[in-house]
Amino acid sequence: MTEEQFWTEFNQIKQDLMDRARENAERFWNNENLTQEDVFKAIAPRDWFEIAYVSFLSEQISSYWKEFDRPFVTALCKHMWDEANHYEIISRVLEKHGYEVPTTTPEVSREWEELHLEALKKDSTCAIAVWNVSETSTTPTMDVVINNCRRIGLEELARVYEKIKKDEDFHCKLGVSILERHMTTEEQRKNAIWGARKLKEQMFKFYDSIYAVPQSQ
Ligand SMILES: [Fe+2]
Ligand SMILES: [Fe+2]
Predict the structure, then answer these.
(1) Does some domain include residue 149?
(2) What Gene3D superfamilies does this protein map onto (predicted)?
């Protein structure tokens, strides 16, 4: 697979997922009968992603930091801190409203998590490709989430997602920059596209389950 072939397919996978995520999120969040309970049930598995990324990034940094330009190591540490902070700020809102904070992998996220762990074992850029697809796919849902949280009286959660939106922009750009600089061999491109394809299949299923049409509709 040439570099050009990699980027063409990789960007298409991200675009397909963004389209699907936007479509599902709009159907769920714009529902006029949406309740706060529907929202908290959809948010809980997303909260798990935040803390899961702290462990993926810590493994990524400890296994591969010597292979990366130093500023990327610093940036990955900032990325890891951001994810811990996202887990904290979402969890506080969940607790305040009487919901439990996830502390083990929800069933719906199991395959997604196993793929990240498998990708981490392959080489220094494979997991970066996987989470770049995963993180980028959620970007078009941010404004839908923020506006509708506000619409149904969840101002605090809207502010939390405004902060997350800003950080995610940095994470998505960071992933692409690392791939551009450090994914240099045919073998790495092969591994990265393997991960991106598998993630696409999984995220399609995931969006269908967390953004199932609410009961109240
Ligand atoms: Fe996050
Ligand atoms: Fe992120």
Answers:
(1) yes
(2) Heme oxygenase-like (1.20.910.10)
Whole-number Å distance, alpha carbon 126 to ligand 2 midpoint, is 17
Report CA(83)–ligand 1 centroid distance (Å).
5
* 2 CA to centre of ligand 1 in angstroms: 31
Q: What band does 212 get if pLDDT is binned at 50, 70 and 90?
A: low
Ligand 2 centroid, distance to 80 Cα (angstroms): 8
Triad 105, 52, 191: Cα angle to 5°: 105
Asked, for residue 166, whether it belongs to a domain, the answer is yes
Q: Quote the pLDDT of residue 211.
A: 62
Number of domains in the chain: 1
Residue 217, in any domain of the structure: no
Ligand lying closest to the C-alpha of residue 52:
1
Show the 3-state SS of 66-95. HHCCHHHHHHHHHHHHHHHHHHHHHHHHHH
